[in-house]
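To: structure subgroup
Subject: Chain for Friday's discussion

All,

I'm putting the inputs and outputs inline so they're searchable in the archive.
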Amino acid sequence: MVRALKRAGGISLKQIKVFQNQSYKDLGILYGLFFEDINHAADGGLYAEMVQNRSFEYCEIDNPEYHALTAWEKAGEVEWEVASDAPLNEENPHYLHVVAHPGGVVRNRGYNTGLFVEAGKRYDFSLFARGAEGGVRIRAAIETKEGVVCGEGFLEVSGGAWKKYELQLAVKETTDCGRLALIFETGGVCDLDMISLFPQDTFLGKKGGLRKDIAQALQEMHPKFMRFPGGCLVHDGSLNDHDRNSMYRWKRTIGKVEERPSWRNNWGYNQTLGIGFYEYFCFCEEINAEPVPVLPGAFNPHKGVGAPLDELGPWVQDALDLIEFANGDARTKWGRIRADLGHERSFSLKYIGIGNEEIGDGFFERYSYFHRAIKEK
């Protein structure tokens, strides 16, 4: 390749060699992924859950157009209300109370145009329920938008205590606009929560795991690292860790999915936190990418509000505990928690991010506390 360079007094030629099939230098870990739950990248995307608003936790704090029954509809003689007395657990306080006559239907529209299911494949359906005396017979069906049944199964809800019910639904017809319908065959009264539908054909076959097509596409990019769970997603929100619009707090994203809270998503969605920090670490390991977790730095640059310097201790400790969760052995508190979740060996964490695209003295004043403590750890 030859390029002409303009110089004073005329034009000179400079030769540039291009080596098409010869690498010059290894990029190391400079090439990787930045994952953030934006445009339904997690819920409705990488996370294989097909039911939208599965625990009736959507609200206007998430999005002005959201409410507790977003993505749900009913048909036939059904009375329903979202209730919160004696819930399944405190982190997900809402559930659906249903009074149905025989043949009444409660239906979920899923994301976008609806559920995508394929003929010949099987899907895991589950819900938590409690019923009135006498029991309630429910037919769980995947239907097309026109009402054609693609697959179905039956369950009997009985007893006054919350109980998990599970079915495998074999699909005989492909559709990309499916609906999950709960048909109350006998009528009755019951409470429903955490209504869920997952393909069995997930990435690496993990139950309740990641969408195979998206996860494989990310794996095939051969990223050297993955930064998660996002940028502004992490540091925009309230300083109170139990507010609905709290900054991202990693400790509340691990453990049983039904015990994880539902949060406002900075980009105008809802976070079920079905992909939590444990799942992110596992995915990084599975695609051979260095994990780069990001935590808030106790400062919200969007609003210019930060935790007082004398109250930074818990924020800094969250970062130290995350390091222990990733790298500590089973004799440590957080290493033991990781091992109990199913990963005995260390995740070999080398990098951690504090804050995201930060500006202003408010952040950098607080960052020094994190930097010092993490270096000592």
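Points worth raising on Friday:
The first strand starts at residue 2 and ends at 7.
The mean pLDDT is 93.

D.
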